[in-house]
Amino acid sequence: MQLFDGNELKKVAEIKAKYPESKAALLPVLWMVQEKQGWISQEAMQYVGDLLGIPNEHILGVVTFYTMFNNKPKGKYHLQICTNVSCMLRGGYELFNFVSDKLGIKNNEITDDGMFTIEEVECLGSCGTSPMMQVNNKDYYENLTTEKVENIINNFKTGHEN
Amino acid sequence: MANTKVIVGLGSCGIAAGAGKVYDELLRIREADNLDFELKKTSCIGMCFKEPLVEIIDDTGSYLYGEVDIKKADEILEKHIQNFSPIKEYIVKSDKYESVYKNYFDGQVKITLRNCGNINPESIDDYEESGGYEAIKKIGNERISANEIIKTILDSGLRGRGGGGFPTGLKWKFANNNRSKDKYIICNADEGDPGAFMDRSVLEGDPHSELEGMIIGAYSIGATEGVIYCRAEYPLAIKRLNIAIIQARERGYLGKDILGIEGFDFDLYIKEGAGAFVCGEETALIASVEGERGMPRKRPPFPAVSGLWRKPTNINNVETFANIPWIIVNGALAYAKYGTEKSKGTKVFALTGKIKNGGLVEVPMGITIKDIIYKLGGGIIGDKKFKAVQLGGPSGGCIPEYLSHTIVDYDSVNATGAIMGSGGMVVMDETTCMVDMARFFLEFTCKESCGKCTYCRVGTKRMLEILTRITQGEGKDGDIEKLEELAYQIKDGSLCGLGQTAPNPVLTTIKYFRDEYEAHIRDKKCPSVYCKKLLTYEIIEEKCTGCMVCKRGCPTKAITGEKKVPHIIHQELCIQCGDCYSKCKFDSIKVF
Question: Which residues of B61-89 are buried (b: 16+ CB within 10 A; e: fewer)?
Fold first, then answer.
């Protein structure tokens, strides 16, 4: 498996050069893999292990320890709904259950068309405007209601901007 | 008006509320109508509950508009900018009018958040114009020694804002005493406490103050390299930090012989986490930077002696670093003027949960919790009864309403059984079940336990099982005592802060709300009418019209009755799903 191209390999070399031990490059390089592929497969772990000279079991340990590393494919839109305390107090679970019912998938599952994954996540620090959802580790949607979230999902489905 | 500035708040909260679109609209109209004003970006001012916020500063004063959508933006441009007529009803703060949010602003003293919501976080010029990098210039110009800085920080009384409350000056002194050639300084930006988001706001709103604080710290302890360990859940913070680092290098604030001080070489980089609450613990954080799973290790040796790559390492929190430049410029006394005898200065609190004004506030230490909740926070949503506030997240505890006169300082808060933590204040009202709240926090710590210590890994699970049983109506006599016994075992048998504090939410809820536990266990009732399995649904005969909506929707056919005749719920069949309650249009179902 040749996962990275020349530029990416150059970036890996730069990351490695920052640290006295190449193991420290593991998290950033795994992030690169996930950004490129959307998730981190067994083959990718092996590739990273060879690249950095790290045993595979260590990489598997790291990937499964950190909750943001995906060891399964995700949908095009990864809906991360916070159900931690501030969101819970303002309807985070109701929101999660609503989306789960609407899309017909459970936590960490993917819809048949590959469009959506929902995930119940821990606090993302937008507690003052809860309940909230983050999409693809990037965009925050806050002060949500079931109507608002339905609208957001419909826009994703139809390719409209949110 | 040539001198008019229009400033849009583009923190995460602002963007989520649509501030990006508002900014684009303002830009579009300015170009289309050839209007003469300067359009600027800033970050969150703390008023998350009124986002998107747009401030207009002109020759007559400053006007902060709240909840600005595209339509309002057009209206503001037309009336305020073109016709010089501010729209009073949209204004949340102004030096011209008395604001309904007067208490929210007047109660605050902004030191940590001094620049948040005022400058463009992506502009080093903005930071310098507002007094940024003055502290390190002062150090360079006046040749202030590391020891003098440490003394200033000690005299200021600043204590670690990450939750530990250890005197920052003392920490630096220990690190400075170490003669090792290589030392590291780390900024702990792994803000994971549920309900706390002040670090995110500082990083998004004023990243240069963070860098400046770290540079001063590095100079004081003799560190050559710095790491900002930031949780990956904060993409905007990471983006803005990266921009700030590049700008600081260009201006010579990072690099070699900084400020012409020979031999003062320092640079830093960001290390992103990947989602693990435990990485906020310092030894777990170091393991994570090194590329390991984030598992804490035994101390001693403390990181100050052997930390990152076995070199002496000093770790401070985001909020702590943000205060440093201000203290150097304004002096220790100016900082120590605020606060109480043992807790000096100001503290940022995140107001969340059942509170009207959800957002950030920065207050002098020593004000009461009640004042924060009612004066600054505006009180409880729907004016319901205030029950308790959780301070310190899952490591902290609840403080009941009758202790809300408690002042915020490290010692007073600790005395209640809660902790200051990083400053998350999760407000709960009469509808919040405290047993379920304890169960919730245990579920969190159980999930987030790294698994190294048996007591933390298995003990939290056992506690969670008992709490789950209680909330499902299967509590037994002796459960409370068993919870307490387990709690102390977990506290004693865990290596790191996560396990040592995990039982706190249970212990404090038992201490202050024992009657709720007893009601669940003995009477099989939830006094807050929250725990589903313990609810009873009944039809109020006088109100029921016999419309049959509830009967048709009931999944267990527990409701019987003829059309236009009051229905009956058969309790032995009811599964407490609440479907009838939510569907009844005549409020004829009561729940208790």
Answer: eebbbbebeeebbeebbeebbeeeebeee
